[in-house]
Amino acid sequence: MTDERYSISQVARCFGVPVSTLRYYDDLGLLPAAERRGNVRYYGHAELCWLALIRCLHHRGLVSLADTAVLVGEDPAADRPSGREVLTSSIETIKGRIADLRNAQRLLEHLLTCPRADPVRECPYLRAELVQAVDHALGRTGVGDAP
């Protein structure tokens, strides 16, 4: 490891985030306190590793920013879930997203192979999916229920 320090603008550029995001993370206590020289914040390798962790957890969509704070925070609060609870909940959320994406993939693959001239407008399978989505949105329990 190196003792080299990087200015907040260098870090922002390297990580592809606005400087304001780094300041926000500092304010939330997500990043360890940055060294300051005048008004400029400087980060070392350890802080950059924390930033990489935050980006891994939050920016990849694995957990919310609030949950990221729970996972990387130093002081667990009594009114917040534990890190393991956050991880368990996040896994369940991801499983749901994966199921949704698999369903979307199946639908798109079906439309790609549908023999109808205009599958988006004419496919009976898609039409049934849309009717089911509308019924669900309207709180109907079965197809053909009266409004």
UniProtKB/TrEMBL annotation:
One of its GO terms (molecular function) is DNA binding. Keywords: DNA-binding, Repressor, Transcription, Transcription regulation. It comes from the Bacteria. Residues 5-74 form the HTH merR-type domain. It holds the Pfam family MerR_1. SMART domains: HTH_MERR (SM00422). PANTHER family: MERR-FAMILY TRANSCRIPTIONAL REGULATOR, REDOX-CYCLING DRUG-SENSING TRANSCRIPTIONAL ACTIVATOR SOXR. This is DNA-binding transcriptional MerR regulator. It comes from Actinomadura namibiensis.
